């Protein structure tokens, strides 16, 4: 996979609701915020569930099949312990809104940078 | 509720395609946020981590997975037994029972074993674990950091009494092959010793039997060879290191040590040697002897179990060492030290009896606390000693009240006998505190000057007090001898008087503690002089980092001493002014004085060794003497070879850690 394609795929997941299967059987669900080359994942607003261990072939359990929900906030899952990654087919509306705001902020920030850079060059 | 699309493959491939070090990150996630993230599967951060990853969670699971219960070969039996002794040693060394002795599946219920010998062995092991826990709980002189007493409510062989298991082991070991029998014998002796200790209060010859059992045990351990370090499949299936994960608190598991079977047997043997030494406590008759005994025992490096056994022997039947009356012992100690009449045997005070008994009560408590400290591990000894100073202050205050009442003095004085005795006890505790600080290497190089100066300060006080008490005692003896001489007459009377005089002269030799205090004083003096001399030549140990205020460090290091009246709390200003007093001496003179002081310390230790070998371990005295002699030579040649060399002098601790050697290189 080309570097740019990989980057684009991962950037597409940022701010989305994802689920990560952890090697000890837990499932952690949260907003995907960061990842690196070692597949170390940072999730914000995360919750964890304890349930039967999942394997690659099984489908993701439904919400009501999961037990012992516990909010854990901001977490980092080491790549060695990531067993599965899933993304919600339908993202919650508030996340989509936040994403839109973030993109718009990013655009404004980029425009500001460009303006400052132009001013600097002119000076 | 929503559906989930699995992207594992694409996600992992994408991550692998990223250049090393690049982050794909949401701009809303700052570095500050990222630092606060909980790292999953890190036992220090992840409280929800499931540590119980094994497929085997219960004994039944293990049996279903084919845990062997019969037809054990000799090698397998030896392997299992060695492994159990290894786990026992690990437990004794402070690891959790849930991670050591209780990880063996057979310990969960030995009755599943159809091999009779092993069943009996594991039943014995359960009783051994239970007995150890009982002794350690009764002694209560160890904390979780060096011994974990919890057995998590396991059934410790309630179906078969101790005596029946002991009899079974005794009968079984006779029919076993030599190597198996040897290990059974070891267990038998361990159990016998435990049994005697657990009930030696109740039976008259319990102590003799316990000592006998210990001798057998030591002999057994000495001849035992760890035979089965070979990997054994059956042994491995019987041990499930994570089996008891659900028993332990949801806190990070403490990583346990790994030792070889040979090391485990050596550790058990060391514990037995410490306990055997600890049995000498029963030959102590006085408080002074008890202090000497515990001073020696504290430096043996005894484990938690040995310390618990000895502590339990000390506080037995509300007496010290089973027979010494605590109040009486304190009175005798004061009387033997300075001949204070109100502490004489049979003396009935006409006034202030309540004050006197209050003093004795606090003194007993103080001495018990001090002794209990010797049964702690080394770092905790120092922490506890820091707290002892508070009770030393109470003791000193009560002593002053008694002195004023009984001597009819107008105002209190530190030279009054009981106040001086309380001060002496505080000084001894203070010296011990400073020595432990050196042994544990708690001080930076630049701090050592103040430590040695303070040691000199405390040892100087102790020497003054001891000298005064000895003078009082000698004057009293001379007065008594003179009155006897005046009253007596005739040949027979003269003969008797001569004998009595000889006896008194023999008793009136300076006490051992005096000699040792003299040695500490000489040591501390010598180091202080040597360090000041190095400073003169611009080669003092490196100065403190710029942000560290030596005054604050000084006050912090010696804060415990603020509680005691004697010696007076020394301040940083006093320290600086005393060091400034040496300004008129040049480096050569200072080094010469330091060499002389080291020589005096070596000579004091040598005298102490020949006169009183029992008070301190011989190896420690030898180490001290070696350090003193070496430092003397270093200081003697220092001025010739030292001045031209660059860099600072370093005080290095040898393996003995008793006192540092001066390194000029």
UniProtKB/TrEMBL annotation, chain A:
SMART domains: Sm. CDD domains: LSMD1. Residues 109-123 have a biased composition (Polar residues). Residues 8-87 form the Sm domain. Residues 99-123 are annotated as: Disordered. Transmembrane segments: none annotated. One of its GO terms (cellular component) is NatC complex. Pfam families: LSM (PF01423). This is Sm domain-containing protein. The lineage of its organism: Eukaryota, Choanoflagellata, Craspedida, Salpingoecidae, Salpingoeca.
From TrEMBL, chain B:
Residues 484-511 are annotated as: Disordered. Keywords: Cytoplasm. Belongs to the MAK10 family. GO terms for cellular component: NatC complex. It is found in: Cytoplasm. Residues 493-505 have a biased composition (Basic residues). The keyword Protein biosynthesis does not apply. Residues 21-160 form the NAA35-like N-terminal domain. This is Uncharacterized protein. InterPro entries: NAA35-like_N (IPR057983), Naa35_N (IPR007244), TPR_NAA35 (IPR057982). Residues 279-662 form the NAA35-like TPR repeats domain. It comes from Salpingoeca rosetta (strain ATCC 50818 / BSB-021). It comes from the Eukaryota. The keyword Kinase does not apply.
């Amino acid at each position: 996979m080309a570097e740019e394609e990989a980057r684009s795929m991962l950037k597409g997941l940022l701010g989305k609701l994802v689920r990560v299967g952890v090697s000890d059987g837990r499932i952690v669900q949260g907003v995907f915020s960061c990842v690196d080359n070692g597949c170390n994942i940072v999730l914000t607003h995360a919750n964890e569930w304890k349930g039967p261990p999942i394997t690659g072939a099984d489908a993701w359990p439904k919400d009501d099949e999961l037990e012992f929900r516990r909010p854990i906030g901001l977490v980092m899952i080491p790549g060695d312990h990531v067993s599965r990654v899933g993304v919600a087919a339908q993202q919650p509306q508030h996340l989509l809104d936040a994403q839109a705001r973030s993109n718009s902020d990013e655009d404004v920030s980029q425009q500001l940078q460009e303006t400052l850079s132009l001013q600097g060059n002119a000076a | 509720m929503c559906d989930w699309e699995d992207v594992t493959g694409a996600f992992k491939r994408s991550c692998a395609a990223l250049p090393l070090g690049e982050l794909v990150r949401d701009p809303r996630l700052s570095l500050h946020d990222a630092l606060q993230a909980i790292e999953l599967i890190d036992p220090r951060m992840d409280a929800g981590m499931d540590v119980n990853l094994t497929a085997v969670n219960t004994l039944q699971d293990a049996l279903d997975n084919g845990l062997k219960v019969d037809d054990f070969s000799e090698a397998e039996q030896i392997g299992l037994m060695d492994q159990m002794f290894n786990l026992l040693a690990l437990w004794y060394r402070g690891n959790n029972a849930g991670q050591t002795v209780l990880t063996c599946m057979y310990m969960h219920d030995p009755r599943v074993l159809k091999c009779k010998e092993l069943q009996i062995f594991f039943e014995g092991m359960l009783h051994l674990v239970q007995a150890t826990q009982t002794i350690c709980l009764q002694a209560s002189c160890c904390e979780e950091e060096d011994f974990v007493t919890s057995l998590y409510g396991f059934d410790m062989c309630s179906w078969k009494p101790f005596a029946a298991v002991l009899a079974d082991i005794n009968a079984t070991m006779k029919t076993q092959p030599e190597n198996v029998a040897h290990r059974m014998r070891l267990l038998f002796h361990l159990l016998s010793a435990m049994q005697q200790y657990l009930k030696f209060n109740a039976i008259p010859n319990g102590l003799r039997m316990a000592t006998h059992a210990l001798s057998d045990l030591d002999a057994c351990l000495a001849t035992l060879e760890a035979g089965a370090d070979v990997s054994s499949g059956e042994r491995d299936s019987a041990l499930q290191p994570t089996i008891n994960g659900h028993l332990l608190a949801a806190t990070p598991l403490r990583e346990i040590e790994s030792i070889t079977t040979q090391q485990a047997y050596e550790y058990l043997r060391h514990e037995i040697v410490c306990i055997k030494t600890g049995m000498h406590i029963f030959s102590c008759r006085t408080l002074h002897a008890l202090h000497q005994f515990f001073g020696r025992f504290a430096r043996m490096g005894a484990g938690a179990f040995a310390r618990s056994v000895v502590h339990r022997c000390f506080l037995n039947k509300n007496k010290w060492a089973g027979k010494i009356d605590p109040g009486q012992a304190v009175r005798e100690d004061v009387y033997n030290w300075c001949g204070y009449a109100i502490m004489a045997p049979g003396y009935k005070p006409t006034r202030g009896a309540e004050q006197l008994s209050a003093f004795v009560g606090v003194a007993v408590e103080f001495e018990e606390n001090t002794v209990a400290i010797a049964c702690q591990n080394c770092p905790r000894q120092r922490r506890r000693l820091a707290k002892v100073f508070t009770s030393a202050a109470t003791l000193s205050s009560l002593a002053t009240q008694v002195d004023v009442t009984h001597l009819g003095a107008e105002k209190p004085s530190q030279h009054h006998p009981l106040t001086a005795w309380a001060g002496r006890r505080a000084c001894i505790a203070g010296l011990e505190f400073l020595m432990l600080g050196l042994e544990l290497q708690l001080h930076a190089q630049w701090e050592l000057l103040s430590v040695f100066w303070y040691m000199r300060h405390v040892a100087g006080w102790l020497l003054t007090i001891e000298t005064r008490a000895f003078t009082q005692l000698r004057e009293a003896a001379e007065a008594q001898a003179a009155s006897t001489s005046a009253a007596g007459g005739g040949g027979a009377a003269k003969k008797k008087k001569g004998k009595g005089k000889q006896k008194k002269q023999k008793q009136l030799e300076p006490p051992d503690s005096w000699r040792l205090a003299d040695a500490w004083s000489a040591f501390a003096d010598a180091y202080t002089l040597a360090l000041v001399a190095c400073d003169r030549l611009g080669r003092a140990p490196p100065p403190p980092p710029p942000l560290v205020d030596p005054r604050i460090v000084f006050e912090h290091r010696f804060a415990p001493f603020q509680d005691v009246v004697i010696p007076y709390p020394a301040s940083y200003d006093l320290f600086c002014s005393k060091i400034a007093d040496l300004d008129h001496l040049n480096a050569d003179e200072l080094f010469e004085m330091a060499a002389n002081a080291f020589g005096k310390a070596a000579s004091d230790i040598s005298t102490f060794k020949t006169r009183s070998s029992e008070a301190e371990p011989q190896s420690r005295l030898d180490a001290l003497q070696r350090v003193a002699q070496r430092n003397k030579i270093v200081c003697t040649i220092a001025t010739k070879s030292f001045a031209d060399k660059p860099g600072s002098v370093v005080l290095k601790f040898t393996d003995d850690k008793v006192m540092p050697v001066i390194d000029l290189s």
